[in-house]
């Protein structure tokens, strides 16, 4: 009998992670590559996903020809947009079977072990999802240009905008704005040139500086207050959709948590598994 393998992939704005399992659920290889946010285009996301999968295969000692024995489950940022999901599904990965969905769906599957619930991902991008009675309903997740409120990319961009306002004396000067401008050698023109090619991931690198400055820095505190308001609105929407519990996930989940209302203490729960656990479930169910 030909061996069957399952490839779980979690792809976002910062990196792409892959885990390869054998038919007995034994982890046999892992891989890591760059961003596979589908809003960046198939020409960027496709090779990143392929590289992570190839690395996992190499770690497992599998030859490239074994790709036809792999059933892959891809949970990708931007996978909630049908045209983008269809585009990456057509990429010539060479796997025997492939299922594509958003990273929010796989995160939710993993967080609640397949049970009803909701998740809110706070990473380079942001997106909420409720899985209730077999129905998936997304909240946000429209990408850096049109959405991703409270995400690292949007928070980082807002911080840089505040720094530029301070240059024109249209906004306050603070330790945060000075630190941001120092990154560009105190030359706002350098920042403008940088922004011409900056990606969401590039903006997201500045988000940790906002949290580091918070608690007395007028600009940082204002930015976090605004972002927290967006998170509250989206969590409330998820509860309105019937999600009995919600898991905060992503690199900014922990930094934001102290700023959220105490009324969420009984609703917000730690995830039982991560997005890769959900991607594995997706690969197995094949739909």
From TrEMBL:
Superkingdom classification of source: Bacteria
SUPFAM superfamilies: Actin-like ATPase domain
Family matches, as Pfam families: BcrAD_BadFG
Domain ATPase BadF/BadG/BcrA/BcrD type: 9-254
InterPro entries: ATPase_BadF, ATPase_NBD, Euk-type_GlcNAc_Kinase
PANTHER family the record matches: N-ACETYL-D-GLUCOSAMINE KINASE (PTHR43190:SF3)
Name of the protein in its database record: ATPase BadF/BadG/BcrA/BcrD type domain-containing protein
